[in-house]
Design a protein that fits this description.
The structure holds 2 protein chains of 2 kinds. Chain A is an alpha/beta fold. Helices cover about 25% and strands about 30% of the residues of chain A. The relative contact order of chain A is 0.13. By secondary structure, chain B is an alpha/beta fold. In chain B, α13 links the parallel β8 and β9. In chain B, α7 packs parallel to α15. The chains are: A alpha/beta, B alpha/beta. Chains A and B meet through α1, β6, β15, α8 and α9 of A and β5 and α11 of B.
């Protein structure tokens, strides 16, 4: 059950795993997520579905190694099995023919953005894409994103827009800057998607808001069961309490209480640090022997 | 009436010791204590205890066997009606069921039926559970959704009757509330596992990580493989108070707090990966079993002081009496007739306290209990740095995805016939908390049993009308 069939290092800290899960692959839609448990003692972590193949029955997961569980997942190899794999959870992205859509992916958020952009293109939309990362070697899937994006030309901005904080690849900018530039140029954008770290999504939302462009974000809150049972993932959207797991993960970016989300994400920082330190102590000497 | 000996107390861990561990609090009778307690039973010619049991266990018969030392006889009498006695012996509210209707109770203390049930079930587990004979295969297959008390009971009975049963569970472990909700110190997980293995040994196949409504819809199950579907998904969604501050950090639903602690074993963090927050001053809102479990877990996780805040008085607390007493013994601080009106927090949104309002009891409400009425001007603040909300749960709507013909009530429970479990949708039955709203483990088991019997009857003769209009009138 839930065997790893392929593994790829997309960046020095970003891993791709393909998982054999035929029933989940048959139902998965862009925008949905799965809850994964690496081993018997593992925690349940939500990971957005980066791709799915109904024929071969596989789900692609992409994650960045930040804490104990993602580092542990990063040590797993082809042939290993996950202890549990539950999905597809959450509401799928609402794919329609909107006209022109803007798809913005930040860091590891590029992965879940890809199937959404692909589906939006297939639905007949003109897809303008921006992918952003801190630095060049944290970028991935430029080719895949270029394939599903419109050949965009507008002054200095051409093709797939790539930006890095330090300018090592593409333009030297944070994601909200090209968003503002595109919208300020008067170009019509019907709907925007922004997926990445919460702080990046917050500033993308602030960038689109003055232009009145409807913006969808995929929230990444803490979860346990992923089915509405626990409420760990609760956020406030438009003043209402919503559960990311069952009401989301996609919400109207302009209605999200970002400060609440950001603070709730910090709830277990001390425990996360403790778990990571223990893990690294236990794995001392094994580092760098990945392959 | 002959002289009746006093009821035999069950040994328990010392409160000072047990608040530092997650081991079971109640230790169970010794053989001598069990025999002595069993001999208190009058063996009434017309027993009144059986009617007090939601699954009609043949109580006098199993107690008679026990008092005569015929342990296997006691096991057979018990398990004829109850697939999961080791669980019921621990978590049933006997004082409002079989023990309430025990004849002895009029003059003395009732026979400790729950403790005897536990003793017999634990004895059997020590022997290695024997599997009863199964009926020949009927060629029919049933999907049971949810491996909690209702689903396990229904699946076990259907498997015994010779049907092929698949039990779909959304979590990675079986047991439902028995696993994620009830703590180890009240119901050891090894007991739950043993009971689940028993149901599997009857032939039921368990499929974990299967969220019905997402992975498969009920219609897909009916169309593809199954002749019948039983919904036993419980009442898994937490209710909130809907007061300011409820989304602050360190405000937990009891579901989350207990799921982290029990199912995910956060009390063993960091050996197990899932953390749970514990802060020095914890307040739990509510006074049911879930509230007691939350408060006592918080204590064991290392809280300095744990408060229970409840809007009614002690007499109205819905918790099992034994758990209320255990909580009192362990030093939980109770604030009766008190209701939170606001959760206070830091600028960044971390809990610092609660604003509370005193209540007085008024006229009975729809539950038959006196309604709590706020006393104007009685508001005050209490410093706490963590809050657990344990004011009840409601059914998870996920299983109803794309099933408009599964008619529901306004409170989100599914409409089903009480005797048969039939919903308005042909070939779909339901039982347990999904029908009643949050209730007890044993009433869910009773509903699972009644549905299993009706499913069996229907699969043998599906020509009978699905839903009789007369019943419909009674329902609405």
């Amino acid at each position: 059950m839930y065997r790893i069939t392929a593994k790829e290092d997309l960046t020095p800290v970003t891993r791709l795993l393909k998982i054999e899960a035929p029933e989940v692959a048959r139902k998965a839609q862009p925008g949905q997520f799965v809850i994964v448990r690496a081993n018997k003692r593992g925690e349940r972590v939500p990971l957005t579905i980066a791709d799915f193949d109904r024929e071969s029955g596989q789900i692609t997961l992409v994650f960045q190694e930040v804490g104990k569980t993602t580092k542990l997942l990063g040590t797993m190899q082809v042939g290993d099995e996950l202890a549990s794999f539950t999905g597809p959870l959450g509401r799928p992205t609402e794919i329609e023919e909107y006209g022109t859509v803007l798809c913005v992916g930040g860091g590891v958020g590029i992965a879940p953005l890809y199937p959404i952009a692909r589906a939006l293109k297939a639905a007949g939309n003109t897809v303008i894409s921006i992918i952003a990362a801190r630095t060049e070697n944290l970028l991935f899937w430029q080719d895949k994103m270029r394939e599903v994006s419109h050949e965009f030309t507008d002054g200095a901005l051409q093709g797939l827009i790539v930006c890095t904080d330090d300018g090592t690849c593409g333009i030297k900018a944070l994601a909200p800057e090209p968003i503002k530039e595109i919208l300020a140029s008067g170009r019509r954008v019907d709907v925007a998607w922004a997926i990445g770290p919460a702080i990046m999504m917050k500033f993308c939302a602030l960038a689109t808001e003055p232009f009145g462009v409807k913006t969808i974000v995929s929230l990444n809150s803490i979860m346990v069961d992923g089915t509405g049972m626990c409420g760990a993932c609760r956020v406030e959207v438009g003043g209402e309490t919503r559960f990311v797991c069952v009401d989301g993960p996609e919400f109207d970016a302009h209605q999200v209480d970002w400060d609440l989300l950001l603070e709730r994400q910090r709830f277990y920082l001390d425990q996360e640090k403790q778990a990571l330190e223990l893990f690294e102590k236990q794995h001392a000497g094994h580092c760098g022997e990945g392959e | 009436m002959a002289k009746v000996e006093p009821r035999n107390e069950m040994p328990r861990q010392d409160p000072k010791v047990r608040i530092r561990n997650f081991d079971e609090v109640a230790l169970g009778y010794s053989h001598e204590q069990a025999i002595a307690e069993a001999s208190r039973c009058l063996q009434c010619k017309k027993p009144t205890c059986i009617a007090g049991c939601p699954v009609q266990v043949r109580i006098p018969e199993f107690i008679l066997c026990l008092s005569e030392g015929d342990m296997w006889g006691a096991v057979d009498a018990l398990k004829d009606k109850n697939n999961l006695p080791a669980i019921c012996g621990r978590v049933c509210p006997q004082e409002t069921q079989c023990e309430e209707t025990c004849v002895l109770r009029k003059k003395y203390e009732p026979v400790a039926i729950g403790r005897l049930e536990r003793y017999v079930a634990d004895w059997e587990m020590g022997q290695g559970v024997k599997t009863p004979p199964r009926a020949a295969s009927t060629g029919k297959s049933v999907a049971v959704i949810g491996a909690g008390p209702a689903g396990l009971t229904c699946a076990g009975d259907l498997a015994k009757m010779g049907h092929a049963v698949t039990l779909f569970e959304s979590l990675h472990a079986p047991g439902g509330v028995l696993m994620y909700g009830i703590p180890e110190f009240r119901l050891p997980k090894s007991v739950v596992h043993a009971e689940v293995e028993y149901v599997q040994s009857l032939g039921a196949e368990l499929r974990f990580n299967s969220v019905i409504g997402k992975l498969h819809t009920v219609d897909e199950l009916l169309d593809n493989e199954y002749d019948a579907v039983f919904l036993g998904t419980g009442a898994g969604l937490p209710r909130w108070m809907k007061i300011p501050g409820e989304n602050f950090n360190a405000v937990y639903s009891a579901n989350e707090f207990l799921t982290r602690t029990n199912l995910m074993r956060a009390y063993l963090f960091p050996d197990w990966d899932t953390p749970v927050m514990i802060r020095p001053r914890v307040a739990v809102v509510g006074a049911g079993n879930v509230a007691m479990d939350s408060a006592r877990s918080a204590l064991r996780l290392g809280a300095d002081e744990v408060h229970i805040v409840y809007r009614r008085a002690r007499d109205q607390a819905p918790a099992r009496l034994e758990e209320l007493e255990n909580a009192e013994e362990e030093g939980i601080i109770f604030h009766w007739l008190t209701n939170p009106v606001e959760i206070l927090g830091t600028e960044r949104g971390w809990v610092t306290g609660m604003r509370l309002q005193k209540q007085e009891l008024g006229e009975p409400d729809s539950s038959g209990r006196p309604r709590p009425v706020p006393i104007p001007g009685s508001e005050y603040e209490m410093d706490v740095d963590m809050v657990v909300v344990a004011i009840g749960t409601r059914p998870n709507p996920m299983v109803f995805t794309d099933q408009p013909d599964l008619v529901r009530t306004r409170s989100g429970t599914v409409v089903a016939n009480e005797d048969t479990g039939r919903t308005k949708k042909p070939r779909v039955w339901a039982g347990g908390d999904i029908v009643t709203g949050a209730a007890t483990v044993i009433s869910a088991m009773g509903a699972g049993k009644r549905s299993a019997a009706d499913i069996d009857a229907y699969l043998k003769d599906s020509d009978q009308p699905w839903w009789v209009e007369l019943e419909l009138d009674q329902q609405s």
